Amino acid sequence: MSDLDRFPKPAATVDLVLMTMRDARLTVLLQQRAADPFVGQWALPGGFVRVEEGLDEAAERILTEKARMQGAWIEQLYTFGAPGRDPRGRVITVAYFALLPRARFDAAMEATDDLALAALEVPWQGETGGPIKAVSASGEALSLAFDHGDILALAVKRLRGKLDYTEIGFALLSDRFTLRELQDVHEAILGRSLNKPAFRRRMLERGWLDSTGKRETGTGFRPAELYRLKSRKG
């Protein structure tokens, strides 16, 4: 008997935190569970890791099979392993995280009726942390399965922490965007209003943006200038 045989074998799962913007609010893709435990409740798209696959492989498979997406860049967020997090037994999950433009979610939700976007209500400021709510398009608070509320809370905390010094927020924008749209993203993530002149001055002075020399179309007011992220150029 090897040393490995002396220890119980926990199961491993992968859960995907896939976020976007809807109606100027930070939202997440959820899947309604069709089986116990937590049948009828909402969960992050996820599944068990197969014996023959690595964690990243499992995440890519679940992205395709459960979230109905392909080619999204995802990164590991955190590993959640509280002993009682799954009533079926000892299950450790690795959460993966991605920010994606809204258009990527439309086709996924058209392919199946068990996926939905839920807005996130975050009652705490900054990176304090704490409970959050997921709310349906009709304003109904959704019951979340397992510890997925904790996973979402950590994702928001991590996102807020990285927003000011990385380009992460631009993942929620199209290749060309206005400064108004960029401010909408920052306000949705931070959960508070920002001073318009100060925000625009800070973004322009940071050196991340290039003016495209063009303006938005299809608007009833004075069209705003369009920008792009320098690192996306070409």
What would you say this structure looks like, in words?
There is one protein chain. The protein is an alpha+beta fold. It folds into two domains: 3-163, Alpha-Beta Complex (Nucleoside Triphosphate Pyrophosphohydrolase), CATH 3.90.79.10; 176-232, Winged helix-like DNA-binding domain superfamily/Winged helix DNA-binding domain (Arc Repressor Mutant, subunit A). Helices cover 25% and strands 26% of the residues. It contains five helices and ten strands; from the N terminus they run E-E-E-E-H-E-E-H-E-E-H-H-H-E-E. The strands form two sheets. Strands 1, 2, 3, 4, 5, 6, 7 and 8 form an eight-stranded mixed β-sheet that branches. Strands 9-10 form a two-stranded antiparallel ribbon. It is elongated, with a radius of gyration of 20 Å. The chain starts with 10 loop residues before the first strand and ends in a 5-residue tail after the last strand. The mean pLDDT is 95.
